[in-house]
């Protein structure tokens, strides 16, 4: 290695380390994109496969939302205990006599995750949909 490369190599390594460190720190602080919109998901429960519409809005911290049915016409339950853990959205909904705990992720087109309630944990997945009656208003 010639002397000019030896002199510049520590500088190049230092700049690279700083750049990688800043990108890692920024990625950790920025978290997932704000979840917004409605998703029609099929809950894969042991005794049934009901359809639920989970609707999210950016009002409220860290997010707000509800479980609705009938294209947004029927309110089932409001989300509470909302948290964002990394790229996962965590929340609870009281629907009828049951308490349902959700953990999910979204790529902006599909919502998928797990739901725990009625003594079981099951998966769910579904596409983003447009409702006739939106739950969230800005």
Task: State the gist of this model.
With 138 residues, the protein is an alpha+beta fold.
Describe the structure.
- By secondary structure, the protein is of the alpha+beta class.
- 20% of the residues lie in helices and 49% in strands.
- It has 2 domains: 1-30; 37-129, Beta Barrel (Lipocalin), CATH 2.40.128.120.
- The chain is built from 1 helix and 8 strands.
The rough form would be described as globular
Task: Please name the fourth-level CATH homologous superfamily of the largest domain.
Answer: Quinohemoprotein amine dehydrogenase alpha subunit, domain 2
CATH topology of the largest domain: Lipocalin
Strand line-up of the largest beta sheet: 1-2-3-4-5-6-7-8
Q: Given this structure, which CATH class of the largest domain is correct?
A: Mainly Beta
Largest sheet: 8 strands, antiparallel, barrel
**Level of helix content?**
10-25%
Mean pLDDT: 79
Architecture of the largest domain in CATH?
Beta Barrel
Q: How many helix segments?
A: 1
Ranges with pLDDT <50 over ≥5 residues? Answer: 12-30
Number of domains: 2
- First CA to last CA: what distance? 62 Å
What's the order of the H and E elements? HEEEEEEEE
């Amino acid at each position: 290695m010639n002397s000019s490369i030896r002199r510049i190599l520590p500088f190049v390594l230092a700049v690279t380390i700083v750049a990688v460190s800043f990108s890692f720190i920024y990625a950790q602080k920025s978290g997932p994109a704000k979840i917004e919109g409605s998703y029609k998901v099929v809950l894969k429960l042991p005794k049934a496969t009901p359809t639920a519409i989970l609707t999210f809005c950016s009002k409220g911290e860290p997010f707000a939302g509800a479980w609705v049915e009938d294209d947004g016409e029927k309110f089932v339950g409001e989300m509470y205990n909302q948290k964002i853990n990394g790229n996962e959205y965590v929340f609870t909904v009281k629907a009828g006599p049951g308490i349902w705990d959700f953990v999910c992720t979204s790529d902006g087109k599909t919502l998928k995750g797990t739901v725990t309630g009625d003594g079981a944990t099951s998966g769910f997945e579904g596409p983003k949909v447009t409702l006739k009656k939106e739950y969230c208003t800005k």
